[in-house]
Every structure is written in C-alpha cells, then in structure tokens.
Amino acid sequence: MKTITITLLPAALLFLAACSSKQETPAAEAAAAGKGNTVTITAAQAATAKIRTGRAEERDLTSALRVQGMLHVPPQFHSSITAPFGGTIRSVSVLPGDHVHKGDVIGSIENVEFVTLQQNYLQTRNSLDVLEAEYRRQQTLAANNVNAAKTFERATADVKNARVELASLREKLALIGIDAASLKESTISRTVPIRAPIPGYVASMNINNGQHVAPNTVMIDIMDTEHMHIEMRVFEKDVMHVHAEQRLTATLNDDPSKSYAGHVHLVGKEVDADRTVTVHGHFDATDPSLIPGTSLTASITVDAHRGLCVPEASVVLYQGKHYIFAHIGDNTYRQLAVDVGSTTNGWTEVMCAEDLSALDIVTEGAHVLLGAMVNRSEE
To answer: Where are the domains positioned within the chain?
Structure first.
C-alpha cells in the first residue's frame, strides 16, 4: 500500500509561504488552531493546499501475491524420441524450431537387427500356419481315439508357443515403427523411418547423419507448445492463500512490457527442500511466440473481497500509525486513526472504530493537515 510520510520542515515552509503571501493576514490566523484531534487552518492555507473532500466508498478489493516461475510444457505434451535397439543415423530432415505433425518422417535409422526381427517374424508366421494345420489334424485324431493324447498335447503346446513368439515379435517391430500386418518378404528393410510421435516444435536435436546411437538414447525432443503452462514456486507460508481458478497476470522477466492473463490450474501437495510448493497456471490464450523455460514473474490475485475504501492520498502515516482527516466545518478537520487493508487501483481499505460512511473525508491535502497538527503540537 502506498502511504505518505510527512516531515516537519516541508510542512513548516508551506505555512510560512502561505502566511507571507498575505501580508494583511493577522498573526493569529497564520498558525493552525484547534485542539486535541482537530485542526483548523485559514482559508488561504486551505486554498494553497488544494484540500478536497469526498465520501468513503464500498469497493471490490484484492491482494496480489508475487511469485517467480517459468514457462513449462506438461509431460504429456513433451515427447523424447529414442532408438530402442540403437543403430546408425542415415538421414535427418528437421532442425530445432521446425514444426512437425504427428506421424511426419523426420529422419531414418539403420540396424542389422531390424532385418533379423523382420525375418524371425515372417518365419514364425509361416511356421504357425503349419503348426495350426497339424493341431487341427491331431485334434481330429484325438476325437476318434486314433492317436495318443500326448501327441495332441504336444501339438497344442507348439501352436500356443508359436502364437506367443509371433505376438512378441509383432510388438518388437512396433517399437521401431514397422507394421507387422503389412510386412512381407519383399518389404524387409535394414532402415526404418523416425516419425514424430506428437505434433509440435522440435526442441532439441542430438543426432547427425552417420552417427551411431546406443539403445534408448534420446535423439530428438518435441514439445507441443499449444499446451504450455506456467510453473510457479510459492513459499509454504503463502501457499495457503492460493487456490485453483484464482486469476493471475504473468510478465516475462526479459520483457516486462507485455502481460499475459491466466488462472491457477492446480496447487501441488508437496513442500520441496527449498520450502516452496509448485503451483501450475494456465494462460487464457495461447501465444506461439512463447518459449518453454523462459523465466517470469506472476501476480496471483488472492483474498478478493469488498471493503470501505478511501483514495490512497487520504491516508497518512505518522509515528507508525495511519490516519485520515474528516471535514467538520469552517476549515476545521478531525483526525481519525485507522487500520489499513489492501490497496487496489488507487483505493485503500480502511477500518475505523467510528462509522466513516457519512463523513466528508479529505481526499487531497491530508499531508498538509498532518503537518499543521504536528507543528501546532510542538509550539
């Protein structure tokens, strides 16, 4: 909250100047009069000080909690492309910053194991056809009690094992992007395409043509910035005031001239070692120019309520206490001690033992009245 602290010298100079401008003003009118918590000034002093009055108003108020954070992409919209079996990079067709669609071919990788996997799958599929035919034959013989039960059981086990092996090879092929259903002898290849698993922007590249990559090495990172959010760090002493759906405004630390509106999405449930809690926020509108990892400052609106308010200039601070002045007639003003709350858009919440709603509150020039009262008390 903005408060005004008054020193004695400027106030004294102001009243000396006011008195000297009217040489005919009697000495008795040159000094402020009054007693106790009232002060009376001359008409000339009131005009020079440009004192204005008004009524206290009921207004909507908020408090703002300033926190630090960064732009962040949730894990479900950040994908790292790896090579499950390793291999040698044969082509790369994107650069960091390029936009890709899901399924786009962004490179290729070569490995002799790819050939072996395809070979084993086709051979197992062919063997399964033979084993299933033998199973059906043994099943018929067993039904007529022609063959031994053990022979039929062996045929049954062979079919099941072949089906398991075929399913296993099908999944391994899927890991490297090969559709087993369309695989045939003429399509066996030692090179497979690297495809984008999600839409978004290429965040990082860790490969180049001819490079050998070990199994499960991260080759390319892709981020879908359409779902970028704000990750904030809130101290544990403040987190109790933060709740989902509270409004917030964020500014980038490197460009505070532009602000971004949003709201609190969720509040973390764990206090980290630095005694902060992670709070996630969402923007009202996406901005493709924003870059993940950028640091920012966010202002979270907390404690929204209505209260009796006066303009900021109405409140003065003296010896650690806050005061306002009320006009009671004939250039006479009464000082009232108040407690102050939050300030929003130039209006400050005040609490007083006395009902302020019917009083004419000084909205401009309160510091002059305080200076006059302090000077009078020292005479």
So the answer is: 1-73+228-379, 80-222
Q: Residue 284: how many CB atoms within 10 A of its CB?
A: 10
Predicted local confidence at residue 378, as pLDDT: 63
Cα 249 to Cα 283: distance, rounded to the nearest angstrom: 9
pLDDT score at 186: 94
What value does the mean pLDDT take over residues 339-351?
Answer: 89
**The CATH number of 80-222 is which of 3.30.420.40, 2.30.30.100, 3.40.50.300, 2.40.50.100?**
2.40.50.100
- CA-CA distance, 323 to 233, in Å (whole number)? 37
Residue 369 and residue 39 in contact, taking contact as beta carbons nearer than 8 Å: yes
The domain 1-73+228-379 is classified under which CATH number: 1.25.40.10, 3.30.710.10, 3.30.700.10, 2.40.30.170? 2.40.30.170
- Distance, in Å, from the CA atom of 168 to the CA atom of 170, rounded to the nearest integer, reads 5
Residue 51 CA: distances (Å) to CA of 4, 307, 343: 15, 25, 22
User: What pLDDT, in 10s, does the model give residues 262-300?
Assistant: 999 999 999 999 999 999 999 999 888 899 999 999 999
State the pLDDT at residue 48.
86
- Tokens 């108020």 belong to which residue? 61
**Distance of CA 204 to CAs 114, 179, 329, Å?**
26, 28, 73
Q: What does the alpha-carbon distance between residue 368 and residue 350 come to, in Å, rounded to a whole number?
A: 20
